[in-house]
Amino acid sequence: VLGLEVVLAGGSALRLGGPRLKDSAGLSLTRLVVGSEGTLAVVTEATLRLMPPQPPRMTAVASFPTTNAATGAVLAITASTRPAMLEYLDRPSINAVEDWRRMGLDRGAAAMLVAQTDAEGIAAERELATIISAFESHGAGEVLATADEEEGRMFVGARRDVIPAVERRGRLLLEDVGVPLPRLPALVDGIARIGAARDVEIALIAHAGDGNTHPLLVYDPADQRMVASAHAAFGEIMELAIGLGGTITGEHGVGRLKKPWLRGQLGDDVLELTRRIKHAFDPNHILNPGVIL
Amino acid sequence: VLGLEVVLAGGSALRLGGPRLKDSAGLSLTRLVVGSEGTLAVVTEATLRLMPPQPPRMTAVASFPTTNAATGAVLAITASTRPAMLEYLDRPSINAVEDWRRMGLDRGAAAMLVAQTDAEGIAAERELATIISAFESHGAGEVLATADEEEGRMFVGARRDVIPAVERRGRLLLEDVGVPLPRLPALVDGIARIGAARDVEIALIAHAGDGNTHPLLVYDPADQRMVASAHAAFGEIMELAIGLGGTITGEHGVGRLKKPWLRGQLGDDVLELTRRIKHAFDPNHILNPGVIL
């Protein structure tokens, strides 16, 4: 986002930034408004930097006997390279997709990783070799690598289908917690422990290369005990992420639902500073009241 | 910059962000403090994301008969690709380096471009071909392309030597104006016009691929008329950049020197908002007083 047109609470329209690739004049107000969830100003226009089209991607897929084997492979891969995609699906996710679509995924695997490289030629070959070697040295059962775009799209599609597939099993609470990459195995273990302790079905998918997970908590909205358990687990997962030096939301934002946990992550001082900045933009607190603060 | 430890004006230490690749919890305070030139808080620690080492670079260099030919080549290249480096040197810059180092640069060229690609294999070959084709179709006199890193470093070194080389000719006022890429030719033309009208020697170098230029205004500090002309040209160049939809500072910041022109770029409303944010952080204005605001 290079620039924004915003309308402030008082009604005036301002231009922040603009179509300049580099600009260090004044405070980074564009960056401040991005991700502020409508609490600072109303965005009426955005100027985006366009990127050249990406080259065709090569895909590598593997299934793992344990979740730790899969998260260990993620750490090994990201230690030396940054794949364009590195997605994680656990057994409940794989089976939910397989129940729905029958794609021939490995139902017995504890987890599956889908990696893609957008490098080209020798660089792509080298990145793919790094990925496959990490898969194999972490006990991957089946490893598949393909330059065929259609086949690659099929596996990416399986990952994309997880949310609607799990949604067929009940109402969802969609989590978005993230941690520093080295803590990913601890986060994945801890989420499973919380699910077991609360007797809540949790399917786990993750943008694993970013340390950002989406636990999908399944519940029956008609079963009050189950609703309470799911919401308790939802909070415990955020507390787990905070305890691991992580975040309650990697990409979806705080909104109203996660507001009670924001203080635990940011601390009183940062929340107080946030409140003062909010006040500087919107002294009467008329913009998206109840969100974030 | 993933995270910061900062000390506020009141003396409290806060942690903003942290070692998480994705985090959307609360306002982007890390981003706001970065580039605030010490006016919001004192940064006492920074957490940076490290990138994998870059592959060896290939280099392409060309000299051009006119500055418009060179800036036209920049627009042609950046229309379809993003080279790792795309640097511009004008004739006074080339000659200042050549006077100092005698590298065999083309003293008669109006401008020179130094491009590098950090792609690999076929992707590097394709990017280099795009660059060379743009050079040639814009009337480049000599075009040199090399995969030899030592040779590439020599040309990058020539670009790096421009500032000390021009400094041998007098005292410098170092500008930092940038524009949206399509306006780069107009900026380069306008800077030359201002230099001629004010009778100020200006050597122009640019991170051309970013639309960010560094006009180097040369003057004799003992000659009061020349000092006044150089400062007048310095201001006119910023006004030119603002008129072209650009910025008074692409990367160096506002500081004290450029403060009088900031209002012209941002406008009253954005400055007023900036003032309110400054006040939210530092109500007694004790942090870096006189900078930006």
Summarize the structure in words.
In chain A, 41% of the residues lie in helices and 20% in strands. Chain A is globular and about 60 Å long. Chain A has ten helices and ten strands. In chain A, the strands form two sheets. Chain A has a seven-stranded antiparallel β-sheet, sandwiched between helices. The first copy, chain A, has a three-stranded antiparallel β-sheet with strand order 2-1-3. In chain A, α2 runs antiparallel to α4, α2 runs antiparallel to α7 (184-198) and α7 (184-198) packs antiparallel against α8. The mean pLDDT of chain A is 97. Chain A is an alpha+beta fold and 293 residues long. Chain A has helices at residues 29-33, 67-78, 91-101, 121-137, 149-160, 162-167, 184-198, 224-243, 259-266, 268-281, and strands spanning 3-7, 13-17, 42-47, 58-64, 85-90, 111-117, 143-146, 171-174, 201-207, 212-219. Chains A and B meet through β2, α1, α4, α9 and α10 of A and β2, α1, α4, α9 and α10 of B.
